[in-house]
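Case study 2.
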Amino acid sequence: MPLPTSPVIRRARLGAELRQLRRRETLTLENVCERLGWASTSKLSRIELGQSRPDLADVLDLLDIYQVSAPQRDALIVIARDAATSRGWWKSLGEMSERQRTYAELEAGAAGIIEYQPAVVPGLLQTPAYARLRIAAGRLIDPAVDVEADLRARAARHSVLRRPEPPRYTALITELACWQAGDPVEVWREQLRHLLELAALPHVTIRLVPPGAGHGPVPLTPFSCYSFPDPADPRTVMLEALTTDVRLSAAADVDRYEQMAGCLLEAALPEQETVRVMAGRLDG
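Prediction:
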């Protein structure tokens, strides 16, 4: 069975490798676009930055110009097909927002995910009722938010934890994010039951981060770390912001966030203790 791939990550990897090949041939963006008859350099720039789904014919033309031979050529064609393909469940979900689509594509190809949430239950662990409250609250800031569409998209993303070969998923949640905080009691009871059910899965780890845990500052911004089956695919971090999320793939940036995740894991309650605390809260 082929390894799952993440289109957004394959686009980033393809772009980086094509940029290296162009520089190896000492060609500028203008040189390449002139040879190919492309009207401007923006098309090639977007491919190299991983910002657009590449056309396979365009990639083949670039490989010809850069004089790439097998087996490197064959490997890059496979990556290009992964980068250009919209296969999978998100293909039919045209209403998915660009922000949701980015997370969906990262999750779809991930081998490991570590997610930190200081204020709410992570999206992959939310029940529909809890998610509805969170999404509806977002309409106070952006009235254009389509609550029902966002709910359907989030429900589709949840399937990644139930697929035959799921990623190793670790959620680091502050105790503040795991208490009722004014939401309806039944919504929270259902959410806690759901967390306990997911915590029982062998590939899911849920750890509570107590207040003042560890020796360093607890980050205020939610973040997620992604690793992939192909070690050549760049490890990635997503920072969740109010309007536009930030994707980091530079090794130095990713290393810092993975180190932060490690510190939080050391400070968090053990898995069994986390389950005991959540079950006690549910009983209470």
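The first strand starts at residue 112 and ends at 117.
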